[in-house]
Amino acid sequence: MVLPSKNTWIRIGAACGLLAVALGAFGAHGLKPILLENGNLATFETAARYHLIHAVAMLLPLAYRDRALCAAHFFLLGLVFFSGSLYVLAITDTKWLGAVAPIGGLSFIAGWAWIFLKGGVAED
C-alpha cells in the first residue's frame, strides 16, 4: 500500500481547511433559511466547527516522524463520517445520517490517541 507523502497531506489538510471555511460561510449565509426551517442550523454549525478543527489537526502529525502520520488518516475519516454526515443531515433533514456521525467521532478520538501514543520527537 502506497501512503500519501507529507506534501500530499499538507495539500489535503489545506483543502479540508478551505472547504471548512467555505461551507461554514455558505451555511451561515446561503443555506441559513433552509437550516432554520429544518431546525438544523446548530447541527450544521457543529459539523463546520469539527471540520475546521480537524483540518488543522490533520497538519499536526506532519511535524513528527512518519509513525504519527496515521493520525492524519484517522482525522480525514472523521471529517468524512462526522462532519460529512452532519452536513448532509442538516441540509436534507435525513435523520438516519445521525447514526453515521459516531463513526467519525471515534475516528477523531483515534487520531488524537495515536498522536498521544505514537507522536514521538519532532523532526529536525
What this model shows, in words?
- Helix content is 71%, strand content 0%.
- The mean pLDDT is 87.
- It has one domain.
- The longest helix is centred in the N-terminal third of the chain and has 23 residues, at 6-28.
- It contains 5 helices and no strands.
- Helix 1 packs antiparallel against helix 3, helix 3 packs antiparallel against helix 4 (70-92) and helix 4 packs antiparallel against helix 5 (101-118).
- With 124 residues, it is an all-alpha fold.
SSE layout and pairings?
Blueprint: H1 6-28, H2 32-38, H3 41-57, H4 70-92, H5 101-118
Helix pairs in contact: 1-3, 3-4, 4-5
Membrane topology: Multi-pass membrane protein
Transmembrane segments: 71-90, 96-117
Subcellular location: Membrane
Label the overall shape. Answer: elongated
**Topology pattern, helix = H, strand = E:** HHHHH
Main sheet characteristics: none
Can you give the mean pLDDT? 87
Helix proportion of residues, in percent? Answer: over 70%
List low-confidence stretches: none
Total tally of structural domains = 1
Q: Number of DSSP strands? A: 0
Our count of helices gives 5
End-to-end separation = 27 Å
* Beta-strand percent range: under 5%
Would you tell me the structural class of the helices and strands? Answer: mainly alpha
CA radius of gyration: 15 Å
